[in-house]
Design goal:
Length: about 375
């Protein structure tokens, strides 16, 4: 029988133990071995788009193949070639035409590469990850992007053809009086890095909301599920920090670079990105400290509840002790016991069993024991 609104797959996944304890996510985070050459699957769809512009002109075009982008190498305008979806043959073809070094081609086709910046044969190369927050899985997802800055052009390589963070930049390029249209390729590279870093704060805001909700849950009614959520959230913070911290070195290397591709007037904009990265790193550290404190709070709550239980059990034991002693005394097998054959002996014993615990309760309250 199929009950309306019931989704069996939501609960069946917990029958698999790695899904229940989140160990599969741990494997995804930690399974990075630089000594093993990973195999990248060829993209099923490759979208090549071009923004060729100057202060007075703009051409926006989707190309049928990367070969059509070769014509823009010798243009006198600024060209942004964006490739969504990676195929080895296409990447090698466009890199060979724009004189991008083979070592950089290997980095573009790599998987789980650490964010970095290189300058090889007149090409300023930046590799980092765009971050997204998956609301359904409640995980931080990453997408590797490679940006190659040359004289008068920027070539970017993305893994996913369905999402990126560059729509605000595309909108600015359509405005003739915008700073992006009035500047060169180095400003275009800065704008892309700035949007990627700014999107980190959007992801961190989502994580911050989860941390706030989880903190209230731990304070009000913590249980084993709360501990599981704490561990899962700490894993997402690991992903966040691992992707953000190296970007500081990337921007710092760009600031120290003496490349002719970077105009002195653009350097101050990269400093602004550097400040944002440092702020994001500090915020991620704060999140990490909060999670550590939250885990300590959970443990303290567990210990507090255990102490409360032990206190109640101790009080009950103390209150029953007089009845146990009185019953034990009158249950001894002696021939002569006071009040044993008295007609009021039973009621006297029961009275003592009630009066003494009441007196003990009053003493405990006066001393503030409960």
């Amino acid at each position: 029988m199929n009950v309306k609104g019931l989704r069996p797959e939501k609960y069946l996944k917990y029958l698999y133990l790695p899904n229940l304890f989140g160990t599969q996510r741990t494997k995804e985070i930690l399974s990075v071995n630089p000594t093993i050459i990973p195999h990248r699957e060829e993209a099923t769809e490759v979208i090549t788009s071009v923004y060729d512009y100057s202060p007075g002109t703009l051409e926006v075009k989707k190309l049928k193949g990367v070969e059509e982008a070769f014509l823009y190498k010798t243009s006198n305008t600024v060209t942004w070639i964006n490739i969504d979806g990676l195929r080895k043959a296409d990447v090698e073809a466009i890199c060979n035409h724009f004189l991008i070094h083979p070592l950089l081609v290997e980095d573009i086709l790599s998987i789980n590469q650490r964010p970095k910046m290189d300058e090889v044969d007149g090409i300023l190369f930046c590799l980092l990850n765009m971050l997204y927050y998956n609301d359904q899985k409640q995980t931080v997802e990453q997408e590797q992007i490679s940006i190659a800055l040359g004289k008068g052009f920027v070539v970017s390589f993305q893994e996913d053809a369905n999402r990126d963070v560059f729509n605000p930049l595309r909108d600015r390029l359509k405005l003739a009086n915008s700073k992006a249209r009035q500047s060169g390729a180095d400003y275009l590279c800065y704008s892309m890095l700035d949007l990627i870093v700014d999107n980190y704060f959007i992801v961190m805001e989502k994580l911050g909301d989860r941390i706030e909700f989880l903190e209230e849950e731990v304070i009000r009614n913590s249980n084993k599920r709360s501990l599981a959520r704490i561990n899962q959230l700490r894993k997402e913070l690991i992903v966040l920090k691992r992707n953000i911290v190296p970007v500081r070195d990337l921007i710092s290397g760009t600031l120290r670079s003496e490349s002719e591709l970077l105009d002195d007037r653009t350097t101050k904009y990269f400093k602004d990105v550097y400040d944002h990265v440092v702020q994001a790193i500090d915020l991620s550290e704060n999140y990490r400290d909060i999670m550590v404190s939250m885990q300590d709070l959970y443990i303290n709550n567990v210990n507090l509840r255990m102490n409360e239980v032990m206190k109640v059990m101790a009080i009950v034991t103390c209150l029953l002790a007089p009845a146990t002693v009185i019953g034990g005394i009158f249950g001894m097998n002696f021939e002569s016991i006071p009040y044993l054959h008295n007609q009021y002996g039973f009621w006297i014993a029961v009275g003592l069993m009630l009066i003494i615990p009441v007196w003990m309760i009053s003493v405990f309250k006066r001393r503030g024991w409960f």
